[in-house]
Design a protein that fits this description.
This protein is mainly alpha-helical and 108 residues long. 78% of the residues lie in helices and 0% in strands. The chain has four helices and no strands. The longest helix has 26 residues. The protein is elongated and about 85 Å long.
Length: 108
């Protein structure tokens, strides 16, 4: 069973490497943040699998700390960049109205 856990951890490490490509080439900051969330989730899973394979309970504590750090990173990203709003929300229509140039008033 330990071989299965180790091979699953190795496979997940490969998915992290693919996520690294998305971080480096991602078209937007949202894509990069999702890849970083992939790192956090997959890193926790790898640590839990290694904890089972090596019968080392301290790795479970480290996995818990990584899970908490992943949540903090997501909250920090949202506070920094904000959540994207769909185009048909009222906030976009207000911005579009304020972006329109005002017509000069020639009623002297």
């Amino acid at each position: 069973m330990n071989v299965f856990y180790l091979s699953a951890a190795l496979f997940l490490l490969g998915t992290i490497l693919l996520g690294l490509v998305r971080v480096l080439r991602g078209p937007g900051s949202g894509d990069r943040m999702l890849a970083a969330q992939l790192f956090g989730t997959t890193g926790v899973t790898i640590l839990l699998l290694l904890s089972l394979a090596l019968e080392e309970s301290a790795l479970m504590d480290v996995a818990l700390v990584f899970a908490l750090l992943a949540v903090v990173a997501a909250v920090a990203f949202v506070r920094q960049h904000g959540l994207p709003e769909p185009p048909d929300t009222p906030i976009h229509s207000q911005q579009a109205e304020s972006a329109e140039p005002e017509e000069p008033n020639d009623d002297r």
